[in-house]
Amino acid sequence: MQRRRFLLTALGAGALVLARGWSGAARAACGLFGRTPAQTEGPYYKAHPPERMSLLQAGVTGEPLLVQGRVLDGQCRPLAHARLDFWHADAEGEYDNAGYRLRGYQFADAQGRYRLETILPGLYPGRTRHIHVKVTPPGQPTLTTQLYFPHEPANARDGIFDPSLLMKLSRGPQGHVGEFDFILAG
Ligand code: FE
User: Fold this and answer.
1) What pTM does this model have?
2) Of the CATH numbers 3.30.230.10, 3.30.360.10, 3.90.79.10, 2.60.130.10, which one belongs to the domain with range 24-184?
3) What is the pLDDT of residue 25?
4) Ligand 1 geometric centre to CA of 44 (Å)
5) What are the angstrom distances between the C-alpha of 102 and each of 30, 53, 171?
């Protein structure tokens, strides 16, 4: 009986340490140094894009890409209903500056989740492959930044590239899947 109680106590203590260790790691990941850094908006932002979660439309061709993740605060808590405004180049590396192709905004859900259906952006001179985004939680300032793709040879030659903005890239049934959690101040 004594031995069983000791074992249960030991197991409980171990679980507590594991739980504390995990939440400590989560705090560290979302703390000051885990924040998603801001980056230049660049020359191709256009205000007032349409609201849409899919940028796939007639005339848009390329490799399908799903970008998804969450918007979190500095304690790794979901930030609900942030506005995410995405824009990027087409498969040939061209931006639509006349219209709103491959531009659109959406609101994250109550758990901070967002989901963008689009295509793999092409490269253009001087830049590696990237997606621009502005993230604005309700009543908070906008974070303007860019997302990057792992294993791109051009990452090493791009002076704006930041490895902390790399998406986790995998293959899903519909094509490429890029995952990124935005971690904002607060
Ligand atoms: Fe760009």
Assistant:
1) 0.85
2) 2.60.130.10
3) 47
4) 7
5) 30, 11, 21
Instruction: Please report the pLDDT score of residue 186 as a whole number.
Output: 66
Q: Is 79 exposed, middle or buried (0-12, 13-18, 19+ CB in 10 A)?
A: buried
Nearest to residue 131, comparing CAs of 103, 112, 97, 100? 103
Residue linked to tokens 């793709």:
149
Report the greatest alpha carbon distance in the chain.
Answer: 78
Three-state SS letters, 130-168: EEEEEEECCCCCCEEEEEECCCCHHHHHCCCCCHHHECE
The helix or strand, by DSSP H or E, that contains position 99, with its residue range, turns out to be: none
- Residue position matching structure tokens 């409980």: 12
User: In angstroms, what is the span from residue 87 Cα to ligand 1's centroid?
Assistant: 8
Distance (angstroms) between ligand 1 centre and the Cα of 121 equals 9
Q: What does the pLDDT read at residue 23?
A: 45
Q: Evaluate the CA torsion angle 72, 75, 77, 82 in order and state its sign.
A: negative
In the predicted model, residues of the chain with pLDDT beneath 50 are: 1, 6-8, 11, 13-27
Contact 143, 38 (CB under 8 A): yes
